[in-house]
Amino acid sequence: MPAAINIIANELIAKIRALAPKYDRHGPKIYRFEADIDDILIFDWLICQGRYPKFYFSNRKNTSQLAALGIADMLTDRSCADFNESISIIQANLNTAEGAPRYFASIAFDKDGQSSPEWQKFARFNFILPKFELRFENHKTTFAYNLMPKQGESLEEIIANFQNSIMKLNFKNDYRPPPFTINPQDRVDQPTQSQWNSNVSRAIESLNSDELGKIVLARKTVLQSDTSVDAPSLAKYLFSESINTYDFYYQPDINIAFMGSSPECLFRKNNDNIYTEAIAGTCLTGDNDIQKRHYGNVLTNSAKDTQEHQYVIDDINEALNRICSEITAIDRRDIVSLSSLQHFRSRFSGKLKNNVNLAEIIQTLHPTAAVNGYQRKAAKAAIGKYEDFNRGLYAGPIGWLGKDTAEFAVAIRSALVQENKIFLFAGAGIVHSSDPIKEWDEIEYKIKPFLKLLEHYG
After folding, report:
1. What whole-number distance in Å separates Cα of residue 150 and Cα of residue 29?
2. Torsion sign (Cα): 430, 432, 437, 438
3. pLDDT band at residue 220 under the 50/70/90 scheme
4. Which residues of the chain does CATH 3.60.120.10 include?
5. Into which CATH architecture does domain 184-457 fall?
6. 429, 370 in Cβ contact below 8 A?
């Protein structure tokens, strides 16, 4: 290891030894040991490591970046079938923890549904307390070791395990992405464009403003290459091209990863304060400021996009009223610009009611009408009639949770990379005035960041 990492390792060992007077070897408890670290690139550090799982999450401005590696504790639907119980266990762990650890979370769009072959490596819900973590916040970077000792484990055993583990990490900070090449040999859209046109037409006919005013239909596009796809390189290039997005990367094992750059915040929580957004209604960004303003004006005057966005506002207002005692609309239908698209965005804050827990927040806000439809139950049931694939983690909540804080994005504009295949996911909101061809074009625009990268580096 570089000399600086030897210093950090020794600093953390000293902190572990200092734990002796209050160390309880008989009860499950989280201990977090931190040291400041300089001159390290968060995502580059993560993808240099040879162990799994790996998890990365950054906010829109990259003022908060989190990289997680390995497992100190994990709860999934495969180990704890009940979602609410899992959250309760995690909250109890965080309430008694030494330090400020965070669990990293990925939750399927339909956490109660069935999985499919391409999603077998991913649990329907997954909460991971990483063994090692890099956290960039408040203009500084912290390296952390999270510990949840086995019953009866001594401090000397813990130190020996820590030394053995940290020696296997790469801190050289010399990552250079390999030449990224992919040659897609085949593209399969599910549904095909003709099937999509039929599905959208039938969905429009089924809409009823009282029961089902909007349905969000998704498409899966599978690209197959003649060589294995380097997922970390694809993610690195994607993140470098993205603007105003939550960037996320989850790699449970070698040769498979889920990644994306999402414009949509599901919620951010700090104590009893909550923030959330409605994002719906889409237009192009264009190649310059003149085009950007033109497309923005077209969006502003679009009755179809305004109606689509209003359903998301209505859905979020109903959800917030169930969990909040106070609600404030920060703004309505402003326009947020991404690298290739612009969207209507309305922002809300609220004061949570007493005793509202994280499980209730997640299940009340997800799925929003931006990825599901409105009314919620009718839309979710209708999706099953038209989509013949499993969304998996696409459009599900992804993020992290701490003792009194949490932040989750909606995992849209995302891709699943599996060996030599890339699964691209995107959706469109269908209302009475929708046009099947225009909705198809919209989802093409939404996967354009991936296609552009593949075209450029292919």
Report:
1. 9
2. negative
3. very high
4. 3-166, 184-457
5. 4-Layer Sandwich (3.60)
6. yes
